[in-house]
């Protein structure tokens, strides 16, 4: 069955960096686009970034453009989200997505 397992979240100070990973299994990873979303309790889940199956095209929410970078390693069945210049408003649970499947999420907290 399809499994998406996120890791790499944690507490970081404003201006800091984190790299999230999502290990995928149960499907042919290299044939699917992948997505990162985030959600703050009480708010709608927001798409943060996407990447095509080959990694040749990426897309970002305006709120993270220039600070976040999505990438993938098809040999490792893993998609990454590199987050730089983190702000308190980036605090959320981050989810990996391959429609219609979701990971369990990883908490990112940006605070001093």
Please give a structural write-up.
The termini are far apart. The strands form two sheets. Strands 2, 4, 5, 6, 9, 10 and 11 form a seven-stranded mixed sheet that branches. The model has no long low-confidence stretch (mean pLDDT 97). The chain has no helices and eleven strands.
Summarize the model shown.
It is built from no helices and 11 strands.
Record the SSE blueprint.
Layout: E1 3-7, E2 10-12, E3 18-25, E4 34-39, E5 46-51, E6 58-60, E7 68-73, E8 78-83, E9 92-98, E10 101-102, E11 106-110
Parallel strand pairs: 2-11
Antiparallel strand pairs: 1-3, 3-8, 4-5, 4-9, 5-6, 7-8, 9-10, 9-11
- The low-confidence runs, each spanning 5 or more residues with pLDDT under 50, are none
* Helical residues, percent: under 10%
Assign the structural class, choosing from mainly alpha, mainly beta, alpha/beta, alpha+beta, or little secondary structure: mainly beta
Major sheet description: 7 strands, mixed
Q: Radius of gyration in whole Å, from Cα?
A: 13 Å
Shape: globular
| Strand residues, percent | over 45%
Number of helices: 0
Whole-number average pLDDT?
97
């Amino acid at each position: 069955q399809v499994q998406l397992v996120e890791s790499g979240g944690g507490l970081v100070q404003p201006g800091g960096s984190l790299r999230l990973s999502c290990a995928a299994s149960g499907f042919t990873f290299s044939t699917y686009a992948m997505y990162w979303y985030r959600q703050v309790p009480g708010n709608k889940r927001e798409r943060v970034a996407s990447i095509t199956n080959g990694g040749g095209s990426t897309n970002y929410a305006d709120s993270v453009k220039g600070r976040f970078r999505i990438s993938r390693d098809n040999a490792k069945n893993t998609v990454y989200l590199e987050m730089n210049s983190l702000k308190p408003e980036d605090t959320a649970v981050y989810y990996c997505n391959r429609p219609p499947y979701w990971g369990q999420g990883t908490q990112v907290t940006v605070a001093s």
